[in-house]
UniProtKB/TrEMBL annotation:
Residues bound to ATP: D178, G179, N180, G181, R182, T183, A184, R185, Y210, Y211
Taxonomy of the source species: Bacteria, Bacillati, Bacillota, Clostridia, Eubacteriales
Taxonomy, superkingdom: Bacteria
Protein name as annotated: Filamentation induced by cAMP protein Fic
Molecular function as annotated in GO: ATP binding
Length: 245
C-alpha cells in the first residue's frame, strides 16, 4: 500500500520540480502558512492549548490572555527552530548530533534551560506506550549509531521511508528528558527538505494514529502504519504546493 503512495509522491515531486524555480512570493506565503500550521499541530500533539489562530498571533508578537508563558514560548521557539533547519538546508550541512542538540536547545529555550541540548541522565517512560526507552547511559552510543546508520544503510531507502524510519528510531531512543516529539518531527522535515520535498505536517487530529503506529514500530518492528501516515501527510503538502505554484 505505502509503495503505491511512494510512487504517487514521486510523480507529484516530479511535477513540482518541473515548476522550479518556484515563484518567490508564492513560495514565501506557502512557507509562512506551513510554519504556522506546523508549529500549531506539533505543539498541540504535545498538549499545548493554543489554537491555530492564537498560534498565528503569538508568532506575530502578540500575547494571548489566559495562556501560560510556556505555551507562548513553545510557539515562538518552534518557529525559530523551523528557521534554523531552513538555514541548514540552504547551507547543505551534513546531518549530525550537533544539529540535533541545537534544534532541541531552541525548542526548550527559556522553558527548561538546564536540559536544553543535553542527553538525558535518567530513565524515562513514554506515557501511554508499551515501548520502554533504553537506559540513559546507553543514549550517547545509540545516538552515534543512529547517525552512522543514517549516513550509510539508510541512504539505500526511499527518502520518505528513510525519514520515517529516522523518526521512529529517534523517538525510540528518546534521547532527551522533554521535547523529543517536536525535535523528531523537525528532524523528519529537515531531511525531507534536504531531499527536495516540502515539509509535512502530522496533524493534531491524527495524534492517536501517530502514537499507535509509532508504538507498533517500536514494539513489533511493524513500520507500515507509520510509513503510510508520513506518506499521507507528505501527499497533502505536495498537493498544496502544486495548487499554489
Amino acid at each position: 500500500m505505502f509503495h503505491l503512495m511512494f510512487h504517487l509522491i514521486d510523480e507529484k515531486k516530479r511535477q513540482l520540480d518541473k515548476k522550479r524555480p518556484l515563484p518567490v512570493n508564492s513560495l514565501n506565503s506557502l512557507k509562512e502558512a506551513l510554519a504556522v500550521e506546523w508549529t500549531y499541530h506539533s505543539n498541540a500533539i504535545e498538549g499545548n492549548t493554543l489554537t491555530l489562530a492564537e498560534t498565528k498571533v503569538v508568532l506575530e508578537g502578540i500575547t494571548v490572555g489566559g495562556k501560560s508563558l510556556r505555551e507562548h514560548l513553545e510557539a515562538i521557539n518552534h518557529k525559530q527552530a523551523i528557521q534554523y533547519i531552513e538555514d541548514i538546508v540552504t547551507h547543505e550541512e551534513e546531518f549530525s548530533e550537533w544539529q540535533i542538540k541545537n534544534i532541541h536547545q531552541i525548542i526548550l529555550k527559556g522553558i527548561d534551560d538546564e536540559n536544553t541540548g543535553v542527553y538525558r541522565h535518567e530513565n524515562v517512560l513514554i506515557v501511554g506506550a508499551k515501548h520502554f526507552p533504553p537506559e540513559h547511559f546507553r543514549v550517547p552510543d545509540l545516538m552515534e549509531q543512529l547517525i552512522q546508520w543514517y549516513k550509510t544503510e539508510a541512504q539505500e531507502l526511499h527518502p520518505v521511508e528513510r525519514v520515517a524510519r529516522l523518526h521512529v528510531l529517534f523517538v525510540g531512543i528518546h534521547p532527551f528528558v522533554d521535547g523529543n516529539g517536536r525535535t523528531a518531527r523537525l528532524l523528519l522535515n529537515l531531511e525531507l527538505m534536504k531531499a527536495g520535498y516540502p515539509p509535512l505536517i502530522i496533524r493534531k487530529e491524527d495524534r492517536l494514529a501517530y502514537y499507535e503506529s509509532l508504538d507498533l514500530a517500536h514494539t513489533e518492528e511493524k513500520y507500515n502504519d507509520f510509513h503510510l501516515l508520513v506518506a499521507e501527510a507528505l501527499n497533502r503538502s505536495l498537493d498544496l504546493y502544486l495548487r499554489v505554484v
